[in-house]
Amino acid sequence: MTTLSALFEKLAQSKKNQIILFVAYVVLTGAGLFLLPDSTIAFLLLLFSILILYYLNVNLRAKWITGIVILAAIVPFIASHSDSYQTYMEVGTLVGIYCAMALGLNIVVGFAGLLDLGFIAFFAVGAYSYAIFASGQASKFMPFGHYPLPGDTFWLFIIVGAIVAAIFGILLGVPVLRVRGDYLAIVTLGFGEIIRILLNNMDHPINITNGSMGIASIAPPNFFGISIGSSSQFYYIAFGIFLVVIYVVRKLENSKLGRSWKAVRDNEIAAQAMGIPLVKTKLAAFAIGASFSGMMGVIFAAKQMFVDATSFTYLESTMVLVMVILGGMGSVPGVILGAAVVIILRTQVLTNISNWLSTMSSNYGISIPPALSPEKMQLLIFGLLLIIFALYRTQGLIPHKNRKVDVELLKKESAEAARAREKATSGGAKS
Amino acid sequence: MNILEVKNLTKQFGGLTATSNINMNVEKNSITAVIGPNGAGKTTFFNMITAVYKPTSGDILLNGKSLIGLKPHQVSHFGITRTFQNIRLFNDMTVLENVMVGMHQNLKAHWVGTLLQLPHIRKMEEAAKVDAYDILKYVGLEDYVNENAGNLAYGAQRRLEIGRAMAAKPKILLLDEPAAGMNPKETERLTNLIYDLRSKLNVTIILIEHDMKLVMKISDFIYVLDHGELIASGKPDEIRNNTRVIEAYLGKGAVAND
Ligand SMILES: Nc1ncnc2c1ncn2[C@@H]1O[C@H](COP(=O)(O)OP(=O)(O)OP(=O)(O)O)[C@@H](O)[C@H]1O
Ligand SMILES: [Mg+2]
After folding, report:
1. Is the dihedral angle over the CA atoms A405, B194, B24, B229 positive or is it negative?
2. What residue segments make up the domains of chain B, in order of their start?
3. How far is ligand 2, taken at its centre, from the CA of residue B39, in Å?
4. What is the ipTM score, two decimals?
5. Which pTM was predicted?
6. Residue A403: φ, ψ to 5°
7. SS3 for B119-133, per residue?
8. Chain A: closest CA distance from residue B159 (Å)
9. What fold is seen in the domain B1-79+170-258?
10. Residue A270 is nearest to which of B88, B129, B130, comparing CB atoms?
11. pLDDT tens-digit readout, A37-86
């Protein structure tokens, strides 16, 4: 035991050993996936390297570059030898989409402290804004223009989706800002349902959303003449936007606006007394958070080529919230991990267990009632997970940490500034 | 010159009159104390000045301009900040961040500029950190820069609240029982800090305080509230010997002590 902990300690100290071990891990799991291309476990182990990378004791830029290389080159390259290539990339795309959405919700819940149980509504708004115009649907109510719009407009619609979702975020925010806490949660829950029901019923008197039939044959995105249709291609789009979203969140978190959010979260009255406008600050959180969701909605619609209201139920809002709480409210790396864990649990682990159970039952005659299949029980499973976290790990998988400043540097700069001031005043006195 | 004038200020909560017809003139760069027994309406008075409560009637004038109808953050923009009797820090933010929130209105960083990493915004953020550090030195918290505010000891939290309010560069600083829960040594430090604020930073100070030694020592002028009414006002010596104040608040002991 002691030798083991001594070994770990030694590891933590030595940068070189850490890097060597990390590279060895990536090579090993990469080779594993190469040799066992259909093993989900090998795929997940390779992805796990990103989490290890996060804890490595190397500088931030090196981490970013390594992470991007692994996710954008190594993983897709090795996975492309597998029959499950498209499935893997589909999972990757979903993780990217939900990570960005969870980061958006994290602004609202984690930074600004506003509980939102209807967050999926913004995803829906983004998805429908592309679906309507990139299919024949728009021609049913638009008096001008030719529809469907070509796939080149997809790129423009990523921004349109963000803006439309932001507008809906403000629409939700304005009436909701008068209520707090539990009441806010209930109103947002209602808002989410209202949007879903509206989308499901806006086929008369004017047919805008095609009602419960949904909108089909949505034009695939077009990238310099290449029509984007496969998961492996969408993976890169989702990944790219995900990177942009992380950049925006990290920059905002430690900016004037980010501090205002956290101040409002910690104490509204004191925040106002320090000159922070409550309404504007909360609306900014709703709008910016919603816009991430809207962008990802556009990608979702393009990827599925079909949308209907069933993709945007209350369950989906809950799932995004679970990602934030499980990962760690307010913690950017935590929320990313939370989103990845939930998506992988849902799409890989639970379905694999289901498959395994059904082969068990057919091979050995053990009958498992379909109601007990893990897929059906995911609500129960996520519910239990939440309870366990609420009891034993309230801060989530990677708890939020405030950014620490370099005090020595501040001390130095402060002394320099003082000297400069002194010089200025003595100079002024002379002249 | 009067920087702040309060005219017939009244606040009713349902049937309860928390303050009634208060009149007050605060001279620029002075230290004014508001004293009175528990429940006299002192905090309510501060809450009306900072727009946390809307007065039932009456007027509040800052340099002749009425503050009635403004939002709390707007009052802050006009140059009035405060501390709170029941400390209200941003507990899950660092000590440095708390002070930086105080600077909010002096930082003109739009979030779009932040995202574009405009050089002048980065420079401003850096300078703000240094300023915040200087303020922490000023209130004696330079060793706790990266600590979460919620983890500080009580006296330190009170000083951080003052530091945060200072960061807003106010014209008028309202202190609600700043010495509450402080030991004599801390109180003395606080006294010097308040003097310093007035002389070096030209801040007008209004404070609510139950520590009579402190009040009598540093105030230029004292207002006494009781049951929401202004029962006396004057220089410390006048208040000390005012029979009504002695009866309502100071008690007979205060006279004997002297
Ligand atoms: N929001 C409110 N709603 C109802 N009554 C209130 C409210 N705020 C204050 N009061 C009442 O107004 C009266 C004055 O309260 P206030 O807090 O101003 O007293 P104070 O002079 O600050 O007392 P202390 O020295 O104990 O702090 C009290 O009777 C109090 O109960
Ligand atoms: Mg009080």
Report:
1. positive
2. 1-79+170-258, 89-169
3. 7
4. 0.92
5. 0.91
6. -70, 130
7. HHHHHHHHHHHHHHH
8. 15
9. Rossmann fold (3.40.50)
10. B88
11. 778 788 888 888 888 888 888 888 888 999 999 998 888 888 888 888 88
